[in-house]
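Q: What structure does this chain adopt?
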Amino acid sequence: MHMMAEQTTQRAAPTPLAIPNFRLLWIGQSLFSLAVQFYTVALVWLVLQLTGSGVALGAVLTVAAVPRAVAMLFSGIIADRVEPRVLLALSALGSATLVGGIAFLLAIDGMALWALYIIAALLGLMDAFFYPTALAQVPRLVAPEKLAQGNAIITTSDNLANILGPAVSGFLISALGLPLAFGLNAIAFAFGGAIMWRMRRRASLAQAQEIGQPRESLRQALMNGVRFAWHTPAIRTSLLMLAMLNFAALGPVVVGLAAMTEQRFGGDASLYGALMATFGCGALLGGILGGLLPALERPRLVLVWLALGMGGGLILIGVVAALWVALVVLALSGVGAGIVGVIAGSWLQARTPDHLQGRMASLLIFSLVAVDPFSNALAGALIDLSLPSVFIAGGALMIGTGLVALFSPKMD
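A:
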């Protein structure tokens, strides 16, 4: 009996954190995500201080989002072929260099809006290569039965970054000023890159060759990934719905909340960071809950409830001028987003062949980031007309998307 128990223990899949490469990925991505959230708040505040314009803020965020979205289509192909630690480390170290450049320009009083456009665009490219590569490693490192657990660990760390990044950024901007805050931001990126460089090399880099397929061109690889997603109705419809939900929510949350902090609540960067961190607290709880829930069989109803709930919450923020309302809505919205992030991501990974994991990760993230420039630009334009309209329009679009998905059997 003792021997049988020992054999069962040996056959049991290790927990994700017992896998060295997963631990390094987890720590490195946690630092990278913390730095990204820190940078997001600092960038928004910097643009507002330089220009005081919602249109300019939307334009800078749009410039960052466009190259990120375009590169995202191809970054998953590269993630399926190239040593992961190289892409992960170089993306983080590149981000450190760019953010350090912002700190230097601010320190010598040489920051100009045109320079910020260039840096924002290059940082968008760093994100495009980092996140699909990191996401694709989870199903490659973790056993299928531990997939939800692995995703929950990564998501929980990301959500902790969503809490700590904005809060720490707002505090340090207020306490130390923007130059030193961006300098510390660059150090966080650099540490993340150094940790991920220590990941062990994969046994093989040629995923296509491992399954006996000929080497694909970039175009063929892209089309094969898109074809797989498009000809799987549930995946196709889910990706389209996620894109619509992100389009409706991103601009109001990132751009709208920054303007609301100043115009409605009379706050500074620390209050804006606290509002963003509130969403992160809810997402942290949602990510933990998502890891405890059973595997998702049908994503439709979960996405529908998220759309209806968050849509109603955005409208409430727009029409009720009370800080506590914004805090409650952001926290509850974060819970829903955290749950969906874990179970929907695991659902997609479980239905994707190993050699397509990088491309599916790219398509998943692309479905979110491709709409960023349009959402940010629209929110920036609406702010200059009417602050409440940003939240009302976003909420109405989310509710409409949820109602369409409610009657879409192709998501099942």
